[in-house]
Amino acid sequence: MKSWVSERLRHRGWEASAFAIYLVVGVLPIAAGLIYALAYSVGLAGLLGKGFTLAHWTSLAGQAEVWLSLLTSALIAAATMFLTLLAGACFALGLRTRLRQGVVAYVVYFPLALPATVAAFFVFQALSDAGLLARVFHALGFIRRPGEFPAMIHDSWSLGVIAAFLILSVPYFTLFFSQVYRTEHLEELCRLTLTLGGKRRDCLRRVIGPIFWRRGRSHIVLWFIAMFGGYEIPLLLGRQTPQMISVLTMRKYQMFDLASKPQAFIAALLYFAIVSLLMLWAFRDERLDRDV
What we know:
The chain crosses the membrane at residues 21-47, 67-91, 103-127, 157-177, 220-237, 264-283. This protein is 73% helix and 0% strand. By secondary structure, the chain is mainly alpha-helical.
């Protein structure tokens, strides 16, 4: 009995120590940064700090730049997420056995090891007007010169940004959906659906789709947040106006005009607020699903 009690106390001691390390290393730096950003945005810190003021917030509220940046970032992340889920589900269902063995089983892991900068460089070399695809189209006679290749880098539709994000996200969700398909025994459930008179589209719409969404909701939200706040890829491949929120924030922070620095902190705070709401929604529903 004493040994059991001492073991429990030792275990709780390790848990308390681990939680304390987490607070010091993970939580406190973020909290300190948020407090400083908030203080800077209301004039209580920084070179422009002369007392409490909401002038920076009211000035930013009347400008469309940050709001367009947030909207652009959300639209790019949403479009990429839609294409990612569509491609990941198709690959997971179409390559079920090949994802477990053979060349495909190894190749699909390779993009997961690529840094965002490398993915952006690869897309630039492939999709620029002097890149690989432009030269292939020119060699095949579809265009008279490589410069006639459609603009996909720094373009108004952010096609290069979306392509680079897809390189990183599609393999992950392909493997994730493939694992869900196996662990949830979806093949047997689909057979049962067909046996009961359902059609294949019923299997996709009423069985596979809802289970993929339920198991992958938190992953989807986290990937959306990562693309929503991505920096390297939109910096290298994205357009200049409007910029994605991370690029705009860094540009405002690094400008020589000191009056733009509070706006950079406000943009960061707005991004943090949106991300926090998304994470609360995702993980609250995840907890409710586990309770059910």
